Fold each of these.
Amino acid sequence: MGAIVTSPRPHVAAAAEGFLPEESPLAMAAADLGRPPRAVSKPVSVGAGMFMRRAFVLMLTVALTGAGAYEMYMVVQVGGVTIMEGMVLALFVALLAWIAFSFASALAGFFVLLRRNGNALPIRDDGPLPQLASRTAVLLPTYNENPYQLVARLQAIYESIEATGQADSFDWFVLSDTRDPDIWIAEEQAFVVLSDACGGGRLFYRHRADNTARKSGNVGEWITRFGGAYQFMIVLDADSLMSGDTMVRMVHAMETNPQAALLQTLPIIVNARSLFSRLQQFAGRLYGPMVAAGVAWWHGSEGNYWGHNAIIRIQAFAEQAGLPELSGRKPFGGHILSHDFVEAALMRRAGWGIYMAPMLGGSFEEVPPSLLDFAARDRRWCQGNLQHLAVLTTRRLHWISRLHFMTGIGSYITAPLWLAFLLLGILISLQARFIRPEYFPKGFSLFPNWPAQDPVLAAWVFGLTMALLIVPKLLGFILLLTRSDTRRHFGGGFRALAGVIAEVLISAMVAPVMMVFQSIAVVEILLGRDAGWQTQRRDDGEVERRELYRKYGVPTACGVAMAISAWAVSLPLLLWMSPVIVGLLFAIPIGAWTAKPAMRALFTTPEEVRPPSVLVRANELAASPAHASVPALAALRQDSGLLHRHLSSLPSAKHGGPGKIDLHLAVARARIDASNSFDEAVDHLTPRETLAVLGDPASLEGLLAK
């Protein structure tokens, strides 16, 4: 990551009440992925117990895949295996291996949680809070988010830390990459309100003039300027929420485990309103802890990083987690979008431990409100994970780290594989139905050798495959029944069971649509289309009718084509494929239905029945009267105090020297220097020009003086 500026107290450099000046950042030497890492003094080691855990998961995966592959071969070998049947068999084996691998982790998590111990590091979630001896920075990177919702969550976390009595061990940084000028100034206004509510102190805000490398660049730049003042940093997302108790226990766990570089919690989804988000919230709360406990059980010190709600040792991150810019053009080249996987792998390569604490609790996040919003975020994640193809061959990575990359890639590659599997099955049936005189055995024969399968055995293979998908959900429900308090907070056993059944049915209708969306995303990326970086919508999930027709048109067309093809073969084939076809045919009404608020009584979760205090406080603050939206320049003209703070945070000169001219700023200057009034000048500025003016003190003061 490069050099670290060591500052005993970062607010010494603050220009005005928590507003950090936008200075030229120090040069950061991006880590060379081929360079041998500098190892820690006592790197973590894997014992015999961890070897046995991993052997169990991998051997169970191989056994299930091998058994399924043999049975599928027996299905298609009747009458000889044709080329297309061979392709179907190969796809089935690959997809079954993926399902079996997930099943093995979930099964391990089931037995781990039966013993009520799922954390990879020894960390208590009850008892008196430990006293901290280190300093921790809490970082909140943001990009074009609602600033008042943002600071509401941050204030709730701040107050929760204060309630622990250890607020002096934490400093707080809002790191803005916002490019919308009105949101930028609204962020500054909201931060002033937050600072006043929290008594000033250890809260800081900074807006970057250049958002190179997005979130990873924002965090990396902060480390070069202020990282030396802290031992740890807790990285949040715009929708993150964490309790003070959890944060204190995480810091203490890092203090007592000096070889740990990162400790990741399991964020629980909260504040879901639409049917789609409530479905995700219920499934994540019921099945998520079991899956996470299984993963933590066999990953051990080779865990992963999901980019937020985690604590990181700054020394390890600064020395090892510098990211390169991948060669080539986007979408595969450029800055790495899914940087968190790579950062964890680089730290583990140097001998540091990457751990997970899924049972700690007190960690929350939100989820996109509709399937379309989820797919838009998923498109960016798809591109980021496919970029990891260039990182897989990095020298000296731990094999579990490579497995993380392959798992991330596989989570998106499997979608087009499923689609190809279904299409090949239909083509084989159509071929057998309409192109009869095609397959002849070698040598002379009076009769063709029709493609044939064993339908009874095929039904058994299908049923066992579905069992591998559904059994983990039933295991999660069984775990619920073993805990009376948790069962009561889910609304009781019968309501939870109804929720499981409804979740399985609705997810079965949504899954084919996501399969098509992810397949399109993979194809677009392979064709060279960049996803960009869009702001995530966090309010209700209502979607305009025109948007529904436009976005769900392709899945619907796929459903029509599949239905016609299956019907052309036989009614039994249509019925056999109906779970997929129904979801695709009704993609538009399903998308509209799941985006609306619904199922309040069905998908009940403990955080709704007994919400934690930090969530209650965050929602109280977020529900305060909405602030009027004021254009950026008008807001600065009306509030001289805000203007002073804003000017003090700007650089004294434009980056790049006199030889480089910002074209948009030059245009903005020309419009400002004209004889028009303030209102006329503002009306003539584009958002990009307004952003340039806000970043240049001379232009801004000249315009506001009109």
Amino acid sequence: MQTVETLNEGLKRAYTVTITSKDIDARVDKEVQAIAPQVRMPGFRPGKVPANLVRKMHGESLQRDALNSSIQDSIQKLIADNKLRPAMQPSVELDETFEFGKDAEVKVELEVLPEIAAPSTDGIKLERLTAEVSDAQVDEAAGRIATQQGALEEYAASHKAKDGDTLTIDFLGKIDGEPFEGGAAEDIKLKIGSGQFIPGFEEQLTGVKKGDEKTIEITFPEDYGAEHLAGKAATFDITVKAILNGDKPKLDDDFAKSLGLEGLDKLKELLKGQIEQEHNGLTRTYMKRKLLDQLAASHDFDVPPSMVEAEFNQIWAQLQHEASHEEDPESALKEMEAEKEDYRAIAVRRVRLGLLLSEIGQANGVVVSDQEMNRLVMQAAQQYGPQDRERFVQYVRQDPMAAAQLRAPLYEDKVVDFLFDKAEVTDRTVSREELEAAIEADDSDLKPHVHGPDCGHDHDHAEKPKAKKAAPKKAAAEKAEEAPAAKDKAEAAPAKPKKAPAKKVAAAEAEAEPAAKKAPAKKAAPKKAAAKAE
């Protein structure tokens, strides 16, 4: 193999590699000897087919395989001999005039990782904002669960339903005096004024009392989802079974026991632990942002354009996806285009900080152990069905790139924790609102893409620049603000302890919808969903 360097400019390298026909033929001969014992041909005993006939039968495929393996081995040798650290997969191009039996000339182009001076971890100063959990927060969380579960205080039988009250009703719908499919339901919760039922339904129940039976008349909207009901006049025979105070959830031991818990104190204990975890996640988010800002301010070096382009493409693709779900996609896309260069700058910063954190981790012996990696693989495998989990595990173990992508988020966490331990940290107690406001104030900061060792550069998190806020930008940026390398990290929204209420709430929300209910409301805009996730 002969190698000639044709480009050495910044982080770009290019080489011309010449592989001799003698090397390729030697590989073909070696493969012929390997497969000859298995070749079967009429007139010859098994394993006794002459090598020249084996070559004649399989020569073309053997030559292709030999050429490919020669090129792969040559590139690996090129990288090792020149002590290169490729940023991405090298570009390899075989000379168009190549013919078997002649030398092969291969052009190799790649970008290398920059040489980063050993970053200092001294002098980092951070403020840790912590928020305590108040009784009011716990009570509010318990109240939300009770409201979702329909655990409301019941009015006296003489109470007349008013706007905001929640009724428990049975109803039977009829068209031309005949019941219709989907028109009957029992024990349905209906809050007057919520707009969850078709127009005219809720308003006619104002003033009813427990035990009342009433027939109301309505007309289904012309654009109603069920074609056989759209525009039709109907009557509903309604029985009022209870009237509940929609603003006053019922919180007592009986309610907690209905969720499978020992009592109200146990429910509050679980909720307090959950809120504490949420606060801890917010605290870490704030500290991490400040840490990354300090690192960015003190380090500046060139980054591989190919990595920046890959990062930018992922950011842009995510922003386009978010924009497509906006109320005015065309306007959102236009605003994105106006700030395209800002997003490219974001990609540069993310890649630079990612390489820096990787360098810090390697320089200080930060590693992900085999035990931790096995746990990551098994956790990721749970998202697949039982029949596919083993295939996924094998895939990750056999594909270094897939393993690197899975490892990167945990590696990032461990590097950040290492830097937290080295930093001079001062503590300040604040309210949750103040902590969230401090994080919101940093929303326009440029965040990194963190690379672990052998990172596969699978980038799918966008961030937003210090510029006019666009709706899709906010959604893309806030969705995983502090999880630049991970696909499913829960840093901004930390993992919550498993609790009994969750199943009950999910079951309640999955209840079948009767025909009288209006069509589902339009999905919330991405920016609103992102704000909740943040």
Amino acid sequence: MDVAAAVRSTLLVSGDAFAQTHYPYAPGQTVRRDVTYTNSGPAPVTLDLTLSPAELPEGLFTLSDAQVTVPAHGTASVGVITHLDAAEDNGAYATRLVATGADGAVLARTPVGVNKEGRRATLALRAKDRHDKPLSGTVILKDVERNTAPKVYSVGASGRLDLRLSPSTYSVWLNSAVPGVDGTHTLGFAMFTAPEIDLDGDRTVAFDADDLRKAAALTPRATANQFLRIDQYRGNTGLFPFMDSYVAEYWRYDSLWVTPTPEVRTGSYNFATRWRQIQPPLTFSAGSQVFDDVTVQSLSSQLPEGTRAYRAAWAGDGSVAEFRGVEVRNRVAVVRRSDTVTPRDQAAAAARAGARQLLILNNGYGKFDPWADLPEAAPLPVASLGTDDSTRLLARFRATGTITLQVVSHPTPRYAYDLVRRHEGAVPRDPSYRPAAAELARVDDTFRDTSQGQAVEYRQDISLLGRPLGIVPTQVRAQGELTSWVTADDDVQWVSFASRSDLGQRGVARSYTPRSTTRETWFAPIQHPRLLSDNGTSVQGPFRAGDHISTSVMTAWGDSGGHAGVVWADSDTSRISLYQGGELLGEDVNERIVVAGGLSPDPKPYRLVLEGSRNLPDRPYSTRSRTVWDFTSATTDPTRLTPLPLVQLDYAVDADLSGRVHRRTDLTVTASHLKGAAGAGAIRTATVEVSYDDGATWRRPALRPSADGWTARLDAPGKARYASLRTTAKDIEGNGVSQTLIRAFGLR
């Protein structure tokens, strides 16, 4: 054994040299921590002591001794002294105490460090309901003057939360459930907001439910809330903006409530509320008394469209025994919410008794929808009535004994409102929204899928941070109509969607002009690849950035209404391939993205190929497609996503709801580029070929220029069932497209 190893084995180190200090501390204050060396050997050991590495504030650490001798079978200590004045507030520093022997060999290393907490102040949060009782909830706290992550805290049953924080400017908001703020048995989602708290000393912030104001949207036509959301945005110059968004569960909350605030002075603050309101899906009335606080239970089947009169039968707590004693066949069975009979059992008993519908009378706060947590629907249509309406209906039962209910059912709404209201700098004294005609635009949606059934429609709004935000979809008929009124403002953008179980369709982000009317058609033939781009706000088309090309997400099945497709079905396949000349740069399947990098900055020819195939019983048309884009591309600004000069084809043909057209009809083809495409030129030429035998043979009808592009007259043989298309178009810069659609539409 060498001498150094032998000496090292005789030393043991105890103690640590880490210090923590908390505000307040005195000027000139020092903190000492001792490190003790124990020598178990027969000879003394002399240690030279240094701090290494020493890249620390000057004078932060010093040693009580630069050298110690540890006697045989004894101990010796050295003090590590921290001079707090040399440390910054809220700073953390670390180094090592190195002990070397007489020969320079390192015999021990001991970590040394200090954390110095700076000045602190107490932010005391106090929350109470309108009866001056403590209110619990969730708190979000954000430092407005530093790039720090927001923090989340819970306020418990005491309604109190004390936080020790560095002096700064803070935004704080607390969300909570507040029952009966308006004197009813409704349950509201409340947001108590303090967007600017100057914390330069201890401070108390009180959140009082008496300060809440209802954020309601009051529309010209009767509506029911389907979606409620609150957004808060907080920013400061040079710092990352912070956005917080809250969705009030539609099966629980009836309303939104907020607290007005003063204008902020530091940075920026925006507050927004978002509503989707639809035609009431279900209302009841008896005589002149209307009961409209109705919650259709999740997954529930619904009564047919229209107004009908039904006898109502009172079945008490809804037990099997109760139903034995009352005639409910083809009637509305009315029961009370029960702690002993579950809603599932009530529904089962009502169904066995032959009831047309079950109506549950609530006795608590908020909406009552137990099926929101259940995996399957009830065996018959089920709805619940709000507590205040329930009390009135029950009183009518007691007074008259029998009731005839007028039941108005709209299982799919005929109209809806998509509304956003934004406030800059503060939450206003009156946060409600009463949109005038001059603030709204009308959107007439027509759904023209080739088979009837259930579809959904929804419209996302683009947040102030430039991202689309989600919403609860509205059920519509796949062959039906919906009229929507939307907030019309240059600063408010919307993205529309429609979907069936196998196929979705989407548009681009857009604003609407006040008092305007826009007509949109969904799912209509001819379905084909449809490219969309709104500069990445909600969708990005194929682009180039510097010497990289990305196809983005490209699908084979858009519609003739200018919507891109989103495929859900497993039996729907597609393949995308990108070439430079004859070289394959990349390919993938089923809506994946192909990215090619390291491309030549010079103009080069490229080819993009998208092939699609689907075999679905409800998709008889556009069963196969192949689109080839030939284009020239050179380097672009690497900091921007510049659209490629791909020629986009669109079609218009007069098809019925089954997707079939008359054998002698006009077909119009339109060609265009994505906005801002680099290297695009005017489109001058196009050709159209038609096949009536799935592409075995082709005919070329004459094309005539029209207002929208080129129009061809079709003349199908009497026995033909389908028409297939082969279309080309080319611009003056040489960019072109060739598209083949097998069974593009049917013939009648």
